[in-house]
Amino acid sequence: MTEISQETMMFRRQPEKKEVAETIREVYAALEAKGYNPVDQLAGYLLSGDPTYITSYDDARTKLRRHERYELIEELVISYLKNIKK
User: Fold this and answer.
1) What is the mean pLDDT of residues 30-45?
2) Would the pTM of this model clear 0.70, i.e. be above it?
3) How far apart are CA 1 and CA 85, in angstroms?
4) pLDDT given for residue 34 in this prediction
5) Which 3 state secondary structure label does DSSP give 53?
6) Are 73 and 24 in contact (CB under 8 A)?
7) Crossing angle for the helix pair 69-84 and 20-33, to the nearest 10 degrees
8) What is the DSSP letter of 8?
């Protein structure tokens, strides 16, 4: 007969995290589809942290909140700097 351990086992589930750039593109598309100005809405969210700047359409708000704001800003800065070097 097999023995069952009495120790508590720790299970850590790694949430699936999309690439930050892909998430930004998806949120941008959702904002555009709903008729919002994506730049204004994303800037408002990044500055304030208020998730109501982002539409819930196509689960955009949830997708964006899976990332820390500093990760979003970091990705935007990296992308910007890569484009100005061209």
Assistant:
1) 98
2) yes
3) 67
4) 97
5) helix
6) no
7) 90
8) P
